[in-house]
Amino acid sequence: MAGKREIKNLKKAAERIKKAVEKKERIILYGDSDLDGVASVVILKETIQNLGGQVTAVFFPDRENDGYGITKKGLKDLEKFAPALFVSMDLGISNFEEAKMAKEMGFDLVIIDHHQILDGLPDASIIVDPKQDGDGYPFKGFANAGIVFRLSQLILGKNFSESVRNSFLELTALATIADMMPVEEDNKGFIDEGLNALRNTFRPAINAFFEILESKSNIQKIISALNTCEMVDHVNEAYLLLTSPDIVEAKKIAANLLQRDQEEKTRIKEIIREVEGRINNQSENIIFEGDALWRLVFAGAVASNICQKYQKPTFIFKKGEDESCGSVRVPKDLNSVDAMATCSSLLITYGGHPPASGFRIKNDNLERFKNCLSEYFKKQK
Questions:
Q1: Could you state, in order of their start, the residue ranges of all structural domains in the chain?
Q2: Which fold has domain 10-200?
Q3: Which runs of consecutive H residues, i.e. helices, occur in the chain?
Q4: Taking a C-beta distance cutoff of 8 angstroms, is the pair 136, 8 a contact?
């Protein structure tokens, strides 16, 4: 019987991964394309390699074209590897249809996520999410990388050396800060120890940033650069950088990410001005704006800025031909996931954390979605 202070199913996930390595099964790691998802994939990949195993494929969904989560397009791209152990990280908890599809393709699906549970759980072999019913671990505020760090400890056991621990703590700290998780309990330890370990890192990617920035203290600039989320054949550039063994190659990628980060900040400011121009003198209780010319990767930053400034629930989306995909931010004490749950019949997918989440919707339902949200938030006052 599981102990009260264990993350539910974490031991099961560790044993399943060890079995896959022992049996030389194909292993697919599928992670979200932000820093938390990337760090989670890097930690688990290096854990498997430390165990003497190999990862068959690493995959990150292209948010711009495919949206968030385990996508049907992603599954079709990976079907050639079935049967395989399919481990999803920092996503998957709201992918009910896709989990069923993965199973039908011959994938053994393990979901490792930290987002809010919606109405039930997907059909996966193992689900690790501290927010699910029956999870006895007292702390629920992990970044996904924090959960994968704990998983790595279980998988490697006595082989979890000090150098491996420090290397994984560095990534866990960066991911926890990047995902704006609460700096308390387990997270405080991850951040304090991880930032301390960063000063003596062996990882070429981090040393590349330190050399370019001529400083070991500008952690936010590193995080911001690693979150720029460009994709190369469904592999995130931040992943390529963090796993690069070559300092020269790492410096080239890091310099490119830092440059792009500055360009993206300029574009984000432009979009914020556009949104503010549209909502000028509006008396509506929510901010709900989208555009075909706005890139989805900017939606979260724009929504955060607008929400903080106007203290209103903010929904910013990229409008596609038939569907739109967006990011949500809400003021303190409001729950964006619960809000969207009341409108879920209008949505293709949705999910995330109470203060920060995302959605995908058919364009035909946009106006009804806006009205539904407005009604929900009127009742919250």
A1: 10-200, 203-266, 281-378
A2: inorganic pyrophosphatase (n-terminal core) (3.90.1640)
A3: 10-22, 35-50, 63-66, 72-78, 96-105, 144-156, 162-178, 185-198, 204-213, 219-226, 237-242, 247-279, 299-310, 336-341, 366-378
A4: yes
Distance CA(40)–CA(149), nearest Å, equals 8
How would DSSP label each residue in 276-342?
A: HHHHTT---SSEEEEETTS-GGGHHHHHHHHHHHH-S-EEEEEE-SSEEEEEEE--TT--HHHHHHT
Rounded to two decimals, the pTM is 0.91
Distance between CA atoms of 165 and 152, rounded to whole angstroms?
A: 9
Domain at 281-378, CATH class: alpha beta
List of the chain residues with pLDDT < 50: 1-3
Round to whole Å and give the CA distance between 132 and 21: 27
Tell me the Cα Rg of the chain.
Answer: 20
Per-residue model confidence (pLDDT) at position 229: 66
| Strand-pair partners of 350 | 359
| Amino acid letter, residue 329 | R
Point out which residues pair with 27 in neighbouring strands: 85
**Closest C-alpha to 36, from 142, 109, 118, 120:** 142
pLDDT tens digit string along 79-100? Answer: 999 999 999 999 999 999 999 9
